[in-house]
Amino acid sequence: MQAYELTQLISRQKDSNKLYLEFLKLPDLSMGLYVLPAGGTDPQSPHTEDEIYYVVSGRAQIKVADEDRAVQAGSIVYVAKNVEHRFHSIEEELKVIVFFAPAEYSNK
Q: What are the residue boundaries of the structural domains of the chain, listed by start?
């Protein structure tokens, strides 16, 4: 079994000095913690895998293709592979658990 505690993941992500911490990678699934600061910029580009965002904390907007919506703790957003998307207007530091299926970068 692999199990994780959010507080430990947050600490590991902070120590890495990176926005994204991948903590699980299997052939058909990967997961990570993505943290964007208030007022920050989301530098990501479309991925070659489907993904789901689960917002743990914070408040922002997300634009997926031409659709824009607010997200906050408890929001879940599905983004199909190869679709342009980005968090923006980040009002409070955003902590997001990201699920990729199959694993990120497996469909290069």
A: 6-101
Cα(95)–Cα(80) distance, integer angstroms: 20
Mean pLDDT on 39-55: 96
Q: How far apart are CA 34 and CA 47, in angstroms?
A: 15
Confidence (pLDDT) at 106: 83
Of the candidates 97, 84, 77, 90, the one whose C-alpha atom is nearest the C-alpha of residue 34 is 97
CATH class of 6-101: mainly beta
User: Mind listing the pLDDT tens digit for each residue in 60-93?
Assistant: 999 999 999 999 999 999 999 999 999 999 999 9
Q: Which strand (E) or helix (H) includes residue 57?
A: strand 50-64
